[in-house]
Amino acid sequence: MNLNPTTETFGQDDQSWLASAHGTSNARTITLDTSAFTAGTHYPSGYFPSGLVLGRITATGLYGPYDDAAVDGRAVAAGFLFCAVDAPSVNTIDPQGALLWHGAVIKALLPIPASLDANGTTDLAAKFDIR
Prior knowledge:
By secondary structure, the chain is mainly beta. The protein has a single domain (24-130), classed as Virus Head Decoration Protein, Chain: A (Beta Barrel), CATH 2.40.300.10. The chain has helices spanning 39-42, 118-124; strands spanning 28-31, 47-48, 53-56, 63-65, 77-81, 85-86, 96-100, 103-105, 128-130. Strand 3 (53-56) and strand 4 (63-65) form a beta hairpin. The longest helix is centred in the last third of the chain and has 7 residues, at 118-124. The radius of gyration is 15 Å and the shape is globular.
């Protein structure tokens, strides 16, 4: 039994990008491919922020950042990371997350608004109200 005190730091997840609660109770469990993300761009604060636009890597079924120029399946936007996820200290550990796959979002409030381009918006148009 370990009775030594431990310290944890908690932050607040910024979900201001959600335009409504629609779809939030149906998020899907997914696995993020940490090696597909860039630390300084996608998780500069040590966590993957909610609202990241994600694409599914065809060969593995894991998810990485949507990239219209990718040739591994991520060129098709699949949805948004619903809740923030701690980034592992090494890129060989792939954490679990939740994918918001339908609902309403405010593009200007996404953590990286420019990551959702016209093609990504088209990919998501049938499932999302993007404002």
